[in-house]
Amino acid sequence: MVRFLIISAVLISMAEPAAAGGRCVKPYAPVIAPGAEVTKADLARLRGDVQAFVEASDVYQKCLLRSGIGASATNLVSSNQAEKERVAKTFNALLKSVKS
After folding, report:
1. What is the domain count for the chain?
2. pLDDT tens digits, residue range 19-60?
3. Which of 13, 53, 74, 80 has the smallest number of CB atoms closer than 10 Å to its CB?
4. What is this structure's pTM?
5. What is the 8-class DSSP label of residue 18?
6. How many CA atoms lie within 13 A of 46 on its CB side?
């Protein structure tokens, strides 16, 4: 479900600004529950969700920078970049804890 939403956001973000109403669609970060029991299948699915989120975030950031909203775009890009880094760190910590 999360992957479907992320892919939808990517496709909408890639549309021409006029066709998409001139708005960039912010992707939703996958939920990573540290400390939960995780199977290999869960890890594979979560890895795919994280990768899809990162890719959708890249598209979102490019859209923001093309939008011409100036400093607001820069702030939104910075916020999204911080979210990407948080998601990646959380996933890597979960991966490391599972391997231990």
Report:
1. 1
2. 343 589 999 999 988 766 888 888 999 999 999 999 999 999
3. 74
4. 0.74
5. T
6. 19
